[in-house]
């Protein structure tokens, strides 16, 4: 059967670092509060005029270089973002243009913090169906543009960045020893809209709006939904948690990540953590973490990598990949 094998990863973070101390100098908050509640110590903020497509292009270029695949051989670009450059066209087409690519198809996917899992699942399905051979799957965000910088309960949590992977079709025998994406599971439940949303948009207000979140409610649902979806991807492959080499979770909050790892019985050394330095970069957080752990040699060929994410919608999902 056809599999989608990850051939390379890339990452890009803006230059500007915003520390908790700096936030505490302008808001009624403290490094102690932010670190103890979330594990976040700093985040990166895009420069004025630096767009989601710019971040995405840098990450995509790095992923292409790491994969050894020529840009002209890419026939699909899927960009997960909740902060597109414009309402339209799709930011993915701007990345396509920036890369000098004029073939194939490029489009955006919007599943907020779960966007990369949704994008990877979509690319995998295109590849399995024989409709694509080599895809760029990108998560890129400039959440700094949609934050209410006066609201200490949300603005301390997020950051900007981009991560990307190149996936390529390969033949597998259909077993869990195959390299590539072994299973993906996606879910949404629109009933929880009011717990996490942006109070603007082209059809509702014609304003960009700001992120609004009932943090405690999101937290409560996240630990339950993530535990369920993680079991679901394992069951889909007939694998058990002890087979997992790396957990690469969405990086929203260290306490949520610890809860998932604990339920799986995974040692902390098997969890890739970037939330301390990146904050919550929404759709970029999983591919940024993948890129870091691939570049420093933690994730090795043949190892089993479990990814999971949950965010606005609510939308949540998991992916199990043999590297
Ligand atoms: N500094 C100091 N105090 C603060 C801050 C701050 N930055 N923010 C809130 N507080 C105060 C609140 O006002 C509240 O004070 P009160 O009790 O006097 O009213 C107190 O701290 C406790 O607030 P809670 O919201 O109950 O704090 P909690 O322990 O739940 O932590 C947090 C809040 C970090 C947001 C947590 O709920 C969380 O991480 N939720 C999940 C968020 C998440 O995972 N989002 C992922 C999806 S994001 C996406 O999809 C875009």
Automatic annotation (TrEMBL):
GO-annotated biological processes: fatty acid biosynthetic process; secondary metabolite biosynthetic process
Q: Where in the cell is it found?
A: Cytoplasm
What residue intervals traverse the membrane? none
Domain Beta-ketoacyl-[acyl-carrier-protein] synthase III C-terminal as annotated: residue spans: 234-323
Main localization of the protein described in the UniProt heading: cytoplasm
State whether keyword DNA-binding applies: no
Q: Mind listing the UniProt keywords for this protein, alphabetically?
A: Acyltransferase, Cytoplasm, Fatty acid biosynthesis, Fatty acid metabolism, Lipid biosynthesis, Lipid metabolism, Multifunctional enzyme, Transferase
Q: Name one GO molecular function term.
A: beta-ketoacyl-acyl-carrier-protein synthase III activity
Catalytic site residues? Answer: 113, 250, 280
Q: Describe the reaction catalysed, as an equation.
A: malonyl-[ACP] + acetyl-CoA + H(+) = 3-oxobutanoyl-[ACP] + CO2 + CoA
Q: What's an example GO cellular component term for this entry? A: cytoplasm
Q: Which InterPro entries match?
A: ACP_syn_III_C, ACP_syn_III_N, FabH, Thiolase-like
Under which pathway is this protein filed? Lipid metabolism; fatty acid biosynthesis
Q: What class of enzyme is it?
A: transferase
Purpose: Catalyzes the condensation reaction of fatty acid synthesis by the addition to an acyl acceptor of two carbons from malonyl-ACP. Catalyzes the first condensation reaction which initiates fatty acid synthesis and may therefore play a role in governing the total rate of fatty acid production. Possesses both acetoacetyl-ACP synthase and acetyl transacylase activities. Its substrate specificity determines the biosynthesis of branched-chain and/or straight-chain of fatty acids.
Kindly state the subunit structure of this protein.
Homodimer.
**PANTHER family given in the database record:** 3-OXOACYL-[ACYL-CARRIER-PROTEIN] SYNTHASE 3 (PTHR34069), BETA-KETOACYL-[ACYL-CARRIER-PROTEIN] SYNTHASE III (PTHR34069:SF2)
Q: What is known of its domains?
A: The last Arg residue of the ACP-binding site is essential for the weak association between ACP/AcpP and FabH.
Q: Of which family is this protein a member?
A: Belongs to the thiolase-like superfamily. FabH family.
- Protein name per the record: Beta-ketoacyl-[acyl-carrier-protein] synthase III
